[in-house]
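Backbone geometry:

***
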Amino acid sequence: MLDQHAPPKTRCRIIRPVVLWYNEIIDNAKRQRKKAEHKWRKTKAADDLLDFKSEKNHVTFLMNKARWDFYSEFMAENGADQRKFFNAAKKLLGIKNEPLFAEHLDKTIIANDIGRYFVRKVENIRNEIDATPISQSDRDLVHPDKPVVDSNVILRSFQNLSEQDIYDLIQKSAKKSCVLDPLPTTLVCDSLDVLLPVITKLVHTSLATSYFPTEWKQAIVFPTEWKQAIVS
């Protein structure tokens, strides 16, 4: 009886993407534009058409301004984070995050293909540079290389940085991290109000004592099983 008097019906629901810069002011302006459009379509009067065009232009102005303000603020706040920066640029340009590589059953094969591609690219660039004829007059324009470090100059002391200087350097640096880091870089940045005095003290102590931990000077070497896990 329930299926006879109240049969199930299918409804199509449109799921629209969330627009972060959309606000209530734009929503109200769009309602006013809709009212002006209904009035003009009903009366066909010239004055109503002008009102509708005015409301339409006002909505366009509000949307462009909100979009501009949002992304300008976003770029200013996340300029140091390249991942967020380029993701925002992709959204602005309408670039979809789709894989550009062909599908491979064995991911090791595609990793090796990428490695060989860049090796060939470097070799081709070097061969093109070596094959480019350079006249003696052009060679004379290039100054001879100078030593990077003057052996007669000795650094005996360093000027300490303020906490604000350390803060600015951390904010401008890349926010990259990996699972081997004791703390994720984003967590360190979010906790700078507590960690900043400690980090500043570490920097000053390292410069004053001429000591830099040996562990920080060495690159991390992954075991073979880790490399296989990363590739797979």
